[in-house]
Amino acid sequence: MYKIISxxxxxxxxxxxxxxxxxxxxxxxxxKSKGYYLSSITGVDMQDHLEVIxxxxxxxxxxxxxxxxxxxxxxxxxxxxxxxxxxxxxREQYDLMGIIFEGHENLRRxxxxxxxxxxxxxxxxxxxxxxxxxxxxxxxEHVSYNENEGW
Amino acid sequence: xxxxxxxIKTTTIEKALEWGSAxxxxxxxxxxxxxxxxxxxxxxxxxxxxxxGSEIFRNSPRQSDLMIVAGxxxxxxxxxxxxxxxxxxxxxxxxxxxxxxxxxxxxxxGYSVVMGVDKVVPVDVYIPGCPPSPQALTYGIMTLQKKIxxxxxx
Amino acid sequence: xxxxxxxxxxxxxPAVHGILKFKVKLQEEIIEDVExxxxxxxxxxxxICELNYYADNMVYFDRMDYIDAMNMELGYLTAxxxxxxxxxxxxxxxxxxxxxxxxxxxxRLVGLGAFGLDMGMLTPFFHxxxxxxxxxxxxxxxxxxxxxxxxxxIGGVYQDFNDQIINDIREFLKEFKPYLEDIYGMxxxxxxxxxxxxxxxxxxxxxxxxxxxxxxxLRGSGIAYDVRKDAPYLFYDKVNFNIPISHxxxxxxxxxxxxxxxxxxxxxxxxxxxxxxxxxxFNNKAKKSMMLRLKGDGExxxxxxxxxxxxxxxxxxxxxxxxxRVHVRSPAFKNISVVPVMAKGMMIADLIVIIGSVDTVxxxxxx
Lengths: 151, 154, 367
What we know:
The structure holds three protein chains of three kinds.
Chain A: E1 4-9, E2 15-19, H1 24-33, E3 36-45, E4 50-58, E5 63-71, E6 75-77, H2 85-97, E7 100-102, E8 132-135, E9 141-144
Chain B: E1 2-3, E2 9-10, H1 13-22, E3 27-31, H2 35-43, E4 66-70, H3 78-87, E5 93-97, H4 99-103, E6 125-127, H5 134-149
Parallel strand pairs in B: 3-4, 4-5, 5-6
Antiparallel strand pairs in B: 1-2
Helix pairs in contact in B: 1-5, 2-5
Chain C: E1 4-9, E2 21-27, E3 30-37, H1 45-51, H2 58-62, H3 69-83, H4 90-118, H5 123-143, E4 152-153, E5 156-157, H6 163-188, H7 191-197, H8 205-210, H9 216-219, H10 227-230, H11 251-275, E6 297-306, E7 309-318, E8 323-329, H12 331-336, H13 339-343, H14 348-358, H15 362-366
Antiparallel strand pairs in C: 1-2, 2-3, 4-5, 6-7, 7-8
């Protein structure tokens, strides 16, 4: 059985439930059986750890719940087996935030090309290092730091 | 062109060609972002662009001679823009519509927007605005027509 | 042995409504699988939002769903105002509501026009844009901007409504009501439109819920979910309107539903325009000169109903002038992910109308 660490409320009166990341699948399975659907996944970089925030929604009781887990090694379990909506969201968070969702069958970058270096939404991402994208005649994309190799 | 007394005009072949191509610009639908909607509005009934001889927006680069780059060009899109440009037949012209296309616009701080489409393809006319109003785009096209009409003079 | 053909549609293609790439696996003309490539309009709005002051970020939200800018602003503002415990005067809230609904009409008109274009119907496109131009004239009068209006700001709206604008809106609605029926008739009396949409793009409700689909796509599958009713913001609980749903589950049902929603939007504007009270249109705590010195603390998730569905904004503040994290729950991102399911087993030509019916705006998907 999962254990709820603490409960609070955000400023829009949405209930926040803090749980351990090992309990996540069990918790979500329980809430899925209660009629909740996944609405969005947000990753927040707190510099020494990452917060992963799941918003789940019940269309019958009009209830929105925020589920929050912490991770220090960038890894969290994937929810793709529960909701298909997680497929795109998890890929996006992997791409921009670098959260590795264990068990996602197709965890690739979604908005940036595969060769891109770094995860831009991390606070440690260096915006001064400009990367350039070029494409060969086959349509394959190449990323480079060298300005001359772009376009 | 010189007006003859008998209702006859004498001109050079180059001038006639320029006059023809300036008044029959066929733009390519290169709608990338927000500006694309204003480009559509320019084409639509209220601000009809057909008055200037460019009513036919072509979807194939091989049938068009003007590329209106309407909307933010991202780094991922830039090679594709270049490729489409290369597929267009000569003579070809490019209009950069909107500040994003001119120099990055509001996304200048970011990591994935090209700071000016002129790094990718040569640009003839720049139209500032975010997004430029359809009237501005019409003015830009008229400016381009003027440029085309005086190409041999230069 | 089955023989497959692979076909690339996009990124620059008139039918994909922006820049989006579909890799379609075909068996003769039947679609086996669709793979979507996103990211051609990834403009890193979420990252830039972290570098800017709270009030500056409006610009980036305007340009997310660029044809529905008012609702995007509203989504961000409802979140940020709660984060700052900022009260919004009543007058400003009514004005916001009218503007949001007007923009919903404008966005739908673009959507319908483009949907017609996908099927080669050029006439409705022109009529839709004539009407949209009238809405934009109202926006210009109120805000100075045509499309990316930047009209609302933290604590209220940028400029007050004057009698001229209220008159213009009334006049517009009077003209628009019969005109909308005309446009509707243009679609409905077209034999080709029926043949290309009736029974195409079936989306079952359980699939829609599983994929997190919202907006007209979900209501078109028979689930009456609209944020304006589910969790009313502004004064949506003080006006009468209905949420239309369709049990047809296909393109045709969704089209009829979208037009019905436009009629409901007109109803909302008609009711609210009489209810605008006198008073300030701006919270003095957020005076224009003080705008950059607003601090936010804590976290908030707020959602509004945009033209594509539930638009959610998550903002985390850390007590400084700049947000720590801004995340957008993009409805179109969820909606587009269901296209492979809807298109499976259909003809390749049907994919075009399915994309048109989903009515995506790429700026919001890629951000």
